[in-house]
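User: hey, got a sec? need Anti-sigma F factor folded
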Amino acid sequence: MNNEMTLSFVAIEENEALARMTMTCFITPLDPTIEELSEFKTIVSEAVTNAIIHGYDCDGKREVTIHAKIEDSKVTMTVTDEGNGIFDVDQAMEPMFTTKPLLERSGMGFTIMESFADKLSVESAIGQGTVVRFEKTFSPVAEKSRMR
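Assistant: Yep! Here you go:
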């Protein structure tokens, strides 16, 4: 099965749930396991939250864009903002590093995304924004083990 979609939305925290649920619906035909679904939703949540909070400082005036593509059982997704950019991507990807300690950010977003994605990359330029790209391959639930 192959499919592709793009979703853009205003960068406000309430839209993180919209992104997570929309992308969950998009991958439903892949018949993910509960664990895969949970991991996927977490990756989407972390990437979108980073764009809203770090990319745009929750300004609510600009957009976050998600582009997703399904090829067979693999999903490739990008989450893009045109915001602040990341000064040092390697440092930002270190566990516990955060630029927003007063907002009680844990600094674990990229670490969590890396642990749940098959591949993760981050491209960023100061004042131009950030693109988080990840891939995840799904193993369909066996027909006999499904709950109906």
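Quick note: DSSP finds four helices and five strands in the chain. Let me know if you need anything else on Anti-sigma F factor.
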